[in-house]
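Issue 218. Parser rejects a valid record. Input:
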Amino acid sequence: MMNSFEYRDINRADIDIVLGLIKELATHEGRPEAVTITPERLTDLLFGGNPVAHGIVGLVDGQIVGYALSAVKFSSFKGHKIAYIEDILVSQNARGNGLGIKMMRATVEKALSIGCEALEWSALDDNEVAIGFYDHIDADRETGRIHFEFDFQSMQGFVGKDYD
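Output the parser choked on:
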C-alpha cells in the first residue's frame, strides 16, 4: 500500500539521485551511453549563476521516486511563457501506482506557478508506453512539424561552412 505522494523543487542534495534517474530514463530509452552529464554540470544548469532549467522530484514516504526537468521558452505568436518538459520519469520500481499522473499533475502545477500558459514535451516515436500514457491523459499530439536539431559538432561545422 502506497502512502502519500508529494513533490518539491529539486535541491542540490538531490543531484546524485536525479542523475541516477536520468540514467534510468536513458536505459529505458535504449541509449544509456547518451548520458554524459556530470553532477557538477547538472548542478550548474539548475542552480548556477544563469540557471536554464528547473526541476521537481516526486516523493513517496519521503523517498524520491520520480523527477521532471523543464525549461521555459515562449511563444512569439501568443506572447506567453511555455514550460518544455525535457524529462519526466517515475522510477521503474514505483510504477503501477498512479504516480505517472501525479508527476504530470505536479509538473503542470509547477509550470502554472512560474507563470507558464502552456506545457510542451515530446516522446520518442517508438516509446509506446509513454505515448499510450499521454493519450490516456488526453494530451494533444502536435502535427505539422518535424523536429530538427544540431549537436555541438554539427553547430561548429555549420558556422564554419560556406553555403553560398
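Fixed in the parser; the record now loads. The helical segments are 15-28, 39-47, 99-113, 128-136, 152-159.
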